[in-house]
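User: I'm putting together notes for a lab meeting next week and I want to include a structural view of one of the chains we've been expressing. I don't have a solved structure, so I'd like a prediction I can at least talk through. The sequence is below, exactly as it appears in our construct file.
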Amino acid sequence: MIEIFAIISQIFFITVLCYFPKKIVGIFDKKNTTFPISIIYLSFLLLFLSFISLPLRNVEIILVAIFLINLFFLIKEKDYKYLIKYRFIVFLTIVFVLSLNIAVDLKLGWDAQNYWLMKSLNFYNGGNIIDLQDFPRPDYPHFGSYLWAVFRSVSLLEHEYFGRIFYLYIFLASIYSILNYTEVSELNKTILFILLVIILNNNHLLNGYQEILVFTYAIIIGCIFRDSYIRIFELRSIINLCICFFIIFWIKNEAVIFSFIFLISIILFNLKYKRKILIFSLFFAFIILLKIFLIKIYGLDSNLQSGNYENFEIKNLSYYFSFDRIIIILKYLMISFVKVPILIILTTGVIVNYLIKPNKFNKIMFLNFILCLVFVIMAYIFTNFPIKFHLTTSIDRIAFELAGFNFVILITFLNNLKIKKLFK
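Assistant: Thanks for the context. Below is the predicted structure for the 424-residue chain, given as structure tokens.
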């Protein structure tokens, strides 16, 4: 009973923490973006705190202060009415049920046990980012592990899995938020939410892998893009996107490439806005350079994957592009589509969207999807790890990340299919 109460308290705390007052957030005056924008602003604050080595007890005080401010405005502005709608109650119920699953099944994935949990324990036990130089895989970004430690520390019981409940919460919150753009009733959005949770539920969700966070923030990028793609080059949109990009840079290294592909896809279909493209590109270049600078300052490893791609040699091109190697990669890629079935839906969606309604938005997402696929294939073509080992241990998870960066395709696909009629 004590653990159940602690889980409920944690969910309530995170809910209020992730719902900033609209007057403070200063967003687009739309309810659709309040939740996701609040999550990225909170995450950005925590990312900043991770770099200044503030003790976790002080971080807890800051989070409690934010919680109280948010709670005050929720009551004052009567925004709590949004949080007691049946659709949101269903969302919280699913968060609670899956949180119980985490509490019962404490199994962690291999990478989570050997890398991410160890980094998390470093922060939880008073260590800082500089200490990660001496940990295994200093090339792996730290922010996911920092979040794990923070939300473990701020919980009532401080069990390890309370940090992962935050992962779960914002993952489900991102799906909940992007479904606001489907043109159906609240009831049907709830049904779609439940169906998507069932489709997406796999081992990567609950066992400490960082791909769940990449997927989450990628969906939030999709929310921002979907909400403002007509005015995507407005300064506010650029800042919000770049904040989200910067956060995701510190979760998984390959997310930098996925983010760059997303940026390129936007630019290539907006070439007439030269000045605005320049501004967007400068912002993106700045956060890339800032990441490199911070890596150097804190003595971390800047390799994409240590022991792998830095061993690339041009003279081995014929080996990398051998027929047998390409066939093996394509085989495992197709298997990953079966294991991550949302990708089958997204593949169908991106083609149908492009054929039915080839507007700028659908062209951008079509190009983004293709380039993301090409990147995944090239990542394995140029790997210097044993090819089958590398594919079997990672391609399902990188496919999950790919799905996150293209998830907004699903919303347009459903709207193009006139799903209002399907639910009548």
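A couple of points you could mention at the meeting. Residues 274-297 form the longest helix (24 residues). The two ends are 42 Å apart (CA to CA).

User: Perfect, that's what I needed.
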